[in-house]
Write a structure and sequence with these properties.
- The chain is of the alpha/beta class and about 325 residues long.
- The chain contains eleven helices and nine strands.
- Strands 1, 2, 3, 4, 5, 6, 7, 8 and 9 form a nine-stranded mixed beta sheet that branches.
- Helix 1 (about 55-70) crosses helix 9 (about 285-295), helix 1 packs across helix 10 and helix 9 (about 285-295) packs antiparallel against helix 10.
- The chain is globular, with a radius of gyration of 20 Å.
Length: about 325
Amino acid sequence: MRIRIRTTAAVAGVSSLSLLLLNGCGAADMTKQASPFANAQGAKSVTLSVQSWVGAQANVAVAQYLLEHELGYRVDTVQIDEVPAWDALSQGRVDAIMEDWGHPDEEQLYVKDKKTIVPGGDLGVTGHIGWYVPTYFAKAHPDVTDWKNLNKYADQMRTAESGGKGQLMDGSPSYVTNDKALVNNLDLDYQVVFAGSEAAQITQIKQFAKEKKPFLTYWYEPQWLFKKVPMTEVKLPAYKEGCDADPEKVACAYPHTPLQKYLNADFAKDGGAAAALLKKFKWTTEDQNEVSLMIAEQKLSPEEAAKKWADSHESTWKAWLS
């Protein structure tokens, strides 16, 4: 979603793959799945990695739409979890990752040491992971927004899945989070329970909200769901540089992370207009949420959502083509 997190292929046209959602076991390791157009002699093709959250799907949907309809490329998308995506990018099995939440070990290995991956620039969106409660519950119990008071409300957060403890709901087990360590190191009477995927987590959050039940959940910004279910962040111990260096000893909040793009080094050098567009691709949190909402809530196809956004934001994406 990610330190760092976080859908499946956002696809359209004759080169499309079907949209798949992560199941409770997480996505398969797709590092050995190459684009059918990869290395095709003379083919104008691009392969994009898609991670398992709708914001990442929104980025890819718009990039794919513009690559296909404005530049005449054939675009393939491949679903890969966050860390394996770096391996695939290094090997040239995919050409670009459009949204990365920070993976220092992979950056050191592939960008600095092997030099097989190069930075593709800022996405323009700042990501933040946190723990959230519904705003209706925070208004009724203002002190719940301080982590020190969470145990006071553990009984109210209990579910069948969390046993005798309060439930801290997470999304996919494939997400890289600090939550189990935080619960342990902050001595909280909670159990991390995985919904299975972002989609399953959203369904559960919406059901809790419909019934006005209290809940505590791992969640992140940017995310369109805040428009439908207002949530208030619980203040964890302040983040300081390096406080999350040891995954077993983490006892601090998640950082605010300017999200980045990464390109395969050969593609960045020889990818022509496609590489140039992806490097210049930069939009706002509001832009991403607009497309995400159309895909996840309004049930538009990724291509339909991308076209609708492109039709009303021509001045934004025209700059990416110049």
